[in-house]
Design a protein that fits this description.
Elements: H1 2-13, H2 25-33, H3 39-49, H4 61-77, H5 93-98, H6 122-130, H7 136-140, E1 146-149, E2 164-179, E3 183-192, E4 195-202, H8 206-210, E5 216-226, E6 229-233, E7 236-239, E8 251-254, H9 263-277, H10 287-293, H11 298-306, H12 311-342, H13 353-362, H14 369-382, E9 389-394, H15 400-413, E10 417-421, H16 425-440, E11 450-451, E12 460-465, H17 471-482, E13 488-491, H18 494-497, E14 505-511, H19 518-525, E15 532-537, H20 543-549, E16 554-558, E17 569-573, H21 578-590, E18 594-598, H22 606-624, E19 630-633, H23 639-650, E20 656-659, E21 672-677, H24 685-692, E22 703-707, H25 713-724, H26 728-744, H27 747-750, H28 763-779, H29 789-806
Parallel strand pairs: 4-6, 9-15, 9-16, 10-13, 10-14, 12-13, 14-15, 17-22, 18-20, 18-21, 19-20, 21-22
Antiparallel strand pairs: 1-8, 2-3, 2-5, 3-4, 5-6, 5-7, 11-12
The chain binds adenosine-5'-diphosphate (ADP) and magnesium ion.
Magnesium ion (MG) binds next to helix 15.
Length: 807
C-alpha cells in the first residue's frame, strides 16, 4: 500500500497525465489487487468500483484529480470508503456526525454523475438521464414501480403452470436455437432431483453463451405448456454462486425503463449503488421525530424499497420515505405561513351585523349555505390582527365574487382600503361591473364609481385601474387611491406593481390564483402595509395537492351551486359528425347566440400552437363560416389585441371566437351558448371543465361539444366522464387519477415539489407529516436547535429551488 501511495503522489505531481507508472495506472492497480485481501486492498477495491469501465485512463483530468485525492485521503486517515456498517444498525455518534455531509469515496459523492460507476457507459448514462437519473443519489431514489414475486421456490415436479415462481436447478444442456426462419434464441434443459424442465429465451441468443453444463442456476418466471410439456419462457436467471440474488428467487424490482435499457442492468446498478452508497445518505430527521412517526433509517428504507424482504417491508419502506418527503414539504409550507403571519400586524376588519344583513338583503338572490359559511370563515379571520391567508375555492359560477365583496365591504367599513386583482384587464372590468352592480342596490350610483348603499351609512368609492385606461384617467385613479379616497380598487396586478400606494390597505383579493405564482404572492405581501389576503380560484384542487401547493393558506370551499342553474349539455362527437356540429353552431348563431371554438392543444411550442390556431381560424372563416363574424385569440397575439378581440366578443360584435387555451381564464359572456373543443382528447378533464364553465352563464340552454379526431380507448373514457360528471372536484380527482399530478397541474407554475415517493392519495401520511411539522415548529420555530439544523437546511434547499423555478 505504501507503493500505491507513492504512485498516486507521483501521479499527482505529474499533473494526472497517467504517466506515473509504465503502461498506465490501470494495469498497476490490477496487478496490485491480485490476491490482496488486506483492508487497504478492500478500500482500493471500493475506490475502483466507482471508476468507469474504461478505467482511470478514461477519466478527464478533473475527474482523475478527484479520484486520486479521494483515494489518497482514504489511505491516509484509514476512515475510508470500505467501512462496512450494517445498514440497519445505528452508526456510532462520530460517524453519524460525519454523515451530515455526504462523504466522498475516491472523490465520488451522492451528487457525482452515474458515469463514474463501473459499467455505466456514456450510452447507458444517456438512457438513465432520460428517466431523470443523472447522479448516484438519483439512482438511489429511482424506485421500482412494482415487484415480480419470484419468492416461491419450488422443486421442478411441483411447479404450477401460469404462476410466477423460481426453480433452483443445474444446467444440462444449453445452445442457441432457431425457431422458424427468423426467430433466434437460446434453449436449455435444466434439472433438479425431481425432474427436468425445458427453458426458452426468445430473441436472446447471448444467454446460451453464458450457460455451461453443470452450472447451478436460479430461474424465475412464468411456467407455460408447450406440446404437453411444461416449460419456462424468457425467465430471469442467475448463477447460484452470486452472494445476493437480485434477479431471481425473491421479490425482484421492476423499474421504469426506457428504450435500450435492460432490466438486468438497472437491477445490478441499483444493487451496487445501494451497497456502496446507501449508508452515506444523510439522515436529516431528528431522532425524536423518527421515533414518533416510526420511521425506518434511510439506508434500510432505501434497501427495502429496491429489494424488499416482503411486500409488507416494501410498504413500510415506502411509508418511511414518503413521510420524510412530505414532512420536509410541510415544514417549508408552514414556515412560509409562519413568516407571513409574523411579518406584521394587520388591521382588524369587520362589518356590523346590521350592515352585513343589509348587504345580504340587497342582493338579487339569496346566498347558498356554502357562500354563507365561507363569508363567516373569512369574517372571523379578518377580525384579527394576524394577517389572513386564505384560499377560496369554488367551481366556475359558484358565486365567489359576492363572498369576496362582503370582505371588501368590511375593509371599507373599518376605514381601510381593499383591492381586488384579476389576471387580465377584461376580467378586472368584469369584476368592476359585477361589484358595482352589487353596491348599486338595484339603483344608480351617486356618480361614476361612487355608491351610497343604505346599509353602510356613508358613500363608497370604487375605482378601476388597468393599464389600458387613458393616461389622464389612470393618473386620477392612482392619485385617488394614494390619497386614501378610494375604498375599493379593482384592477390587474399592475395595481400593486405600478406607482400606486395604498395608505390604508387592509385586504387584497387575488382572483384566479394559479396565474399568479408564489413569488407574486410574496411581492404583494411586501407591498407597504400588511394586508389580509384572500386568494380565489376556480380550479378545483384535491386535498393532498391543496395542502402541498397551498398548504400555507387556510381553505374555504364553496361546494354548492346557486339553485336553478341549467346544466351545460355536454356531448362527445365523432369526426364524421363534424359537419353536423358546424351546422349546429350556425343554428345557434342564427338564433342570436355566440360560440367559442377551442383549437387543439399543441404542446410543442407557443409558436407552433399559434400557427395551428391561425390555420384553424382561416379554414373556419373561409370554408365553414364565411358569412359569420369570427375573431381569433392565441398566445402570440399581443395582450392589447387579445383584449380588443375579447371585448368585441363580449359586446356581441363577433359571432364566434376561435381561441387556444388562453381563454381558459376567461370572461362571462351570458350570450355565448356553445363551447366547441377541437381535439378534446388532448385536454385534461379539469381543463375541459374550465372551458365548459365559459358557457351556461345566461338564461339560454348551453352546449359543450367535444370533438376528437382519433381518440384512444382511454381518451374516450375520459370524454365520457365529461358527459356524465358536472362537479369540478370529482372531475379533478378523476383527472389526477388518470393523468397524474404533473399533467394535471404544471409543476413549475404552481411550485409543486416533484414527489418522488409520496403519492397524492397519501392523505393519511400527509396529515401525519403536517401534524409533526407543526409540532417541530412549535417547539423550535426557526429550526435552530442543533438536532434540527440539517432538516432546516434541507427545507430551505427544497424551497429555494422551487422559488427560483417559480419566479
Ligand atoms: P365565480 O365563482 O365563477 O366567480 P361569480 O361570482 O361570477 O362566480 O357568480 C356567477 C354568477 O352567479 C353571477 O352572475 C352571480 O351574480 C350569480 N350568483 C352568485 N351567487 C348566487 C346565488 N346564491 N344565487 C344565485 N345567483 C348567484
Ligand atoms: Mg369569478
Amino acid at each position: 500500500m505504501e507503493s500505491l501511495r507513492k504512485v498516486l503522489e507521483l501521479e499527482r505531481a505529474k499533473g494526472f497525465a497517467d504517466t506515473a507508472v509504465l503502461g498506465g495506472l490501470d494495469g498497476f492497480l490490477r496487478r496490485l489487487l491480485k490476491g490482496d485481501r488486506s483492508t487497504a486492498g478492500a478500500r482500493l477495491r471500493t475506490a475502483l468500483r466507482v471508476l468507469p469501465a474504461r478505467g482511470y485512463a478514461g477519466l478527464a483530468t478533473g475527474e482523475r484529480r478527484r479520484w486520486v485525492e479521494g483515494l489518497l485521503g482514504a489511505l491516509a486517515d484509514g476512515s475510508g470508503p470500505a467501512r462496512a456498517s450494517p445498514a440497519e444498525h445505528r452508526a456510532p455518534a462520530a460517524s453519524r456526525r460525519a454523515q451530515a455531509r455526504p462523504p466522498a469515496v475516491g472523490g465520488v459523492t451522492l451528487g457525482s454523475s452515474i458515469e463514474v460507476l463501473k459499467g455505466v457507459s456514456r450510452a447507458t448514462a444517456a438512457r438513465l438521464a432520460r428517466l431523470g437519473v443523472r447522479t448516484i443519489g438519483d439512482l438511489l431514489y429511482h424506485f421500482p414501480h412494482r415487484y415480480s414475486d419470484f419468492a416461491h421456490i419450488r422443486p421442478i415436479s411441483q411447479i404450477v403452470v401460469g404462476e410466477e415462481q423460481t426453480v433452483l436447478a443445474t444446467v444440462w444442456t444449453a445452445a442457441e436455437t432457431t425457431m422458424g426462419r427468423r426467430l433466434k434464441g437460446s434453449e436449455a434443459v435444466v434439472g433438479d432431483e425431481t425432474g427436468t424442465l425445458r427453458v426458452i429465451w426468445w430473441g436472446q441468443r447471448y444467454v446460451a453463451r453464458q450457460l455451461r453444463p453443470g452450472m447451478r442456476l436460479a430461474l424465475s418466471g412464468r411456467v407455460t405448456v408447450f406440446r404437453g410439456q411444461r416449460q419456462m419462457e424468457n425467465p430471469e436467471y442467475e448463477p447460484l454462486t452470486s452472494d445476493d440474488l437480485i434477479h431471481t428467487a425473491r421479490l425482484v424490482p421492476v423499474y421504469p425503463l426506457t428504450e435500450g435499457l435492460s432490466p438486468r442492468v438497472v437491477r445490478r446498478l441499483a444493487k451496487e449503488t445501494l451497497d456502496a452508497f446507501a449508508d452515506r445518505v444523510p439522515d436529516t430527521m431528528p431522532p425524536s421525530t423518527q421515533e414518533r412517526l416510526g420511521l425506518w433509517p434511510v439506508p434500510r428504507a432505501l434497501r427495502q424499497m429496491h429489494y424488499p424482504d416482503s411486500l409488507n417491508a416494501a410498504e413500510m419502506a415506502r411509508r418511511s420515505l414518503a413521510l420524510r418527503e412530505l414532512l420536509t414539504i410541510q415544514l417549508g409550507v408552514l414556515k412560509r405561513r409562519q413568516a407571513w403571519q409574523a411579518s406584521g400586524r394587520a388591521h382588524p376588519l369587520g362589518l356590523s351585523p346590521a350592515a352585513l344583513e343589509g348587504f345580504v338583503a340587497s342582493l338579487p338572490f339569496s346566498l347558498t349555505g356554502a357562500q354563507r359559511r365561507s363569508m363567516a370563515e373569512i369574517a372571523a379571520d379578518i377580525a384579527r390582527e394576524v394577517p389572513m391567508s386564505r384560499l377560496l375555492q369554488g367551481d366556475v359560477g359558484s358565486g365567489k365574487t359576492v363572498v369576496a365583496t362582503a370582505a371588501l365591504l368590511a375593509a371599507a367599513a373599518s376605514g381601510c382600503q381593499g383591492a381586488i386583482m384579476a389576471p387580465t384587464e377584461i376580467l378586472a372590468e368584469q369584476h368592476y361591473r359585477t361589484i358595482s352592480a352589487l353596491f348599486s342596490d338595484g339603483g344608480e350610483p351617486l356618480w361614476s364609481g361612487v355608491f351610497q348603499p343604505s346599509y353602510l351609512g356613508r358613500p363608497l368609492r370604487v375605482t378601476l385601474l388597468t393599464g389600458s385606461l387613458a393616461a389622464k384617467d389612470k393618473a386620477a385613479a392612482q392619485e385617488a387611491i394614494s390619497r386614501g379616497e378610494v375604498d375599493i380598487a379593482i384592477g390587474t396586478h399592475a395595481l400593486i406593481q405600478e406607482e400606486v400606494s395604498f395608505p390604508r390597505l387592509g385586504l387584497v383579493v387575488v382572483d384566479e390564483q394559479h396565474r399568479f405564482g408564489v413569488m407574486q404572492r410574496a411581492a404583494l405581501r411586501a407591498k407597504g402595509s400588511c394586508p389580509h389576503v384572500l386568494v380565489m380560484t376556480a380550479t378545483p384542487i384535491p386535498r393532498t395537492l391543496a395542502l402541498t401547493v397551498y398548504g400555507d393558506l387556510d381553505m374555504s370551499l364553496i361546494d354548492e351551486m346557486p339553485p336553478g342553474r341549467k346544466r351545460v349539455k355536454t356531448i362527445h362527437v365523432l369526426p364524421h359528425e363534424r359537419d353536423e356540429t358546424y351546422g349546429f353552431v350556425r343554428e345557434q348563431v342564427q338564433q342570436g347566440r355566440q360560440a367559442y371554438i377551442i383549437c387543439p392543444l399543441v404542446e410543442e411550442s407557443e409558436a407552433i400552437a399559434a400557427k395551428a390556431a391561425v390555420q384553424e381560424y382561416e379554414y373556419l372563416a373561409r370554408e365553414v363560416f364565411p358569412d359569420l363574424r369570427l375573431g381569433l385569440v392565441h398566445g402570440r397575439v399581443p395582450a392589447v389585441e387579445r383584449e380588443v378581440q375579447m371585448r368585441a366578443f363580449r359586446d356581441g360584435r363577433l359571432d364566434i371566437l376561435v381561441a387556444t387555451a388562453v381563454v381558459e381564464v376567461g370572461i362571462d359572456v351570458a350570450n355565448a351558448t356553445v363551447m366547441l373543443v377541437e381535439g378534446a382528447d388532448r385536454f385534461g378533464l379539469s381543463q375541459l371543465h374550465q372551458f365548459r364553465g365559459r358557457v351556461g352563464r345566461g338564461e339560454h340552454q348551453s352546449y359543450c361539444i367535444l370533438l376528437s379526431e382519433n381518440p384512444s380507448e382511454e381518451a374516450q373514457e375520459r370524454l365520457r366522464l365529461m358527459e356524465s360528471i358536472y362537479d369540478g372536484f370529482r372531475l379533478a380527482e378523476e383527472d389526477l387519477r388518470l393523468r397524474g399530478p404533473g399533467e394535471y397541474f404544471g409543476t413549475r407554475q404552481t411550485g409543486l415539489p416533484d414527489l418522488k415517493v409520496a403519492r397524492l392519495s397519501d392523505v393519511d401520511l400527509l396529515e401525519q407529516a403536517r401534524a409533526e411539522a407543526a409540532r417541530l415548529l412549535e417547539g423550535d420555530p426557526a429550526l435552530a436547535r442543533p438536532e434540527h439544523r440539517p432538516l432546516a437546511r434541507e427545507v430551505s434547499h427544497l424551497w429555494g429551488r422551487l422559488t427560483a423555478e417559480v419566479s
